[in-house]
Amino acid sequence: MNILFIMRHAGFIRIFDPALRILCERGHRVHVGFVITKERHWMADSINLAGQLSSEYPNFSSGMIPAREDAWGLIGSDLRASVDYLRYLTPYYKDAPKLRERAAEFALKSVVSLTRRGPLANGPGRALVSLACRLAERSIPVSYEITRVLEAQRPDVLLCSPLVEPGTPQMEYVRAARSLGIPVVLCVGSWDNLTNKGLIHGPMDLVTVWNDAMKREAVELHGVSPDRVV
To answer: Of 212, 229, 190, 208, which Cα lies nearest the Cα of 23?
Structure first.
């Protein structure tokens, strides 16, 4: 199997190192792509685990892949970050003001203003704004550049982590993969990713978690079907 695993930065290899080794030992071709952004977090692999894996397994490779930074990409990121923010206005997060304020920093200012005061500053109003943001984000055309990256890699499956950062640029790869019929798996990277980060945007073919508590979070907080969480 040809596997493309996109990560926010190379530091995530430490989390998935055992799984990557098992995949390689079972004969799968694994390429890890670090999504380039202006912050250049791909340099976070201080002990060069990616290099070690490459030297040990001829079927492992890694490298940088582009983030979508055109106008559509920026709009999509803002819309996703706004939906992420709106989750913190639900009753579940009523006692989490710090998380709410942190999420507001990434959201569209118009969304923050509309949902904090006025006729939309209530449950139904916020749900309506969230739906409008989701529909607008889904109407954005898939990136031609990212589609070309996937066509060049020709993966049988796309793995991604963490995918729940505010407005996550990784979501553009998920959207392109789905347009090409490539199955997508979210590999949750940390114990708190499902509770105090962003939402899972769009359907996943599979979500991998650490334990039953995280499975409940995926189902109850992100609306993932229980049979798609392992």
So the answer is: 208
